[in-house]
Amino acid sequence: MIILCYRSPFLRRTLASNKKNNDGSLVHIKFPNISPEIFQIILKYIYGGIISLNEQEPSMVLEILVAADQLYLQEIVDYLQEYLIKNKSEWMEQHFGLVYQTSFQSNSLLELQNFCTDCMTKSPQIIFDSLDFTSLNEKSLISLIKRDDLQMKEIDIWENVLKWGLEKNPTLLSDSTTWSNDDFKMMENTLQHCLPLVRFFSLSSEDFFQKVRPYKKLLKHSLYEELLESYLNPNSIPSDNILLPRDSFKDPILSHVIDTEYALFYDNNFGPTFGKVDIDMRVLESDDSEEYDLCRCEQASYEKKIRETEDEFSVEDYEVFQIIKNDD
Prior knowledge:
With 328 residues, this protein is mainly alpha-helical. It is 43% helix and 6% strand.
């Protein structure tokens, strides 16, 4: 009993607050969230200071971690978090929903929280591809799709939001043409806090037509009309309350021009080109597509290298920004 009280602040406080029975024995203490098997493993650690994880399934290790956290065994909590991240990261990615929801139930599981946050910012597709993605609760899904730094195509985010919504409404078929007005209303209610976080104005006209239009009844009429206008009239000005495109720039390179004579060049089949060949983009004359097929980056006229390799590559789309100083 002395060892139990010494090793676990939770048990020390719990045992101290329980009065003895008339026969001198302590009353029973219940841990409804800890199974007997898990508690036995914890007791072996408390009395022996050793825990063997080699034969344990990752799900069991996660349960041990939760139990250790409940008992305020911070030493083993830190060890188990490190063990899972170093040895079971693939399993945690496949079961991201479980790991995410577990990690944010306690302020002590900071390493697991950091692991989940890194996945969200650097490899979000892993989350959507996880075996239990659709088991994420609404709060967890919202925390993911509201991020401005989410490195995914917006159409993929939209399709995964629909996938999550369908899982929450198992009576609905994936084919929206089979849905009644009541079905659309049910799905709209399910996604009411998620739909405003999808950056619909970032979608291509093709994606909008093929993958959003069939679900137009999920969107507010004013939003759908504004989206439609933006595709039919590119010069239209959307309302002020739309979400801006997500930040797709990862590790941006800020490089100043050295040779201003070659700062920028452009013609029908060539460019935009920055420097002599610092960013060199060309279209094959025989190619009717809008893609730049012959591109390369070799440091010449700018102070920093854009790519580590000088191999050729292709570009599907690009954006050029000009920053103008405000003299006011």
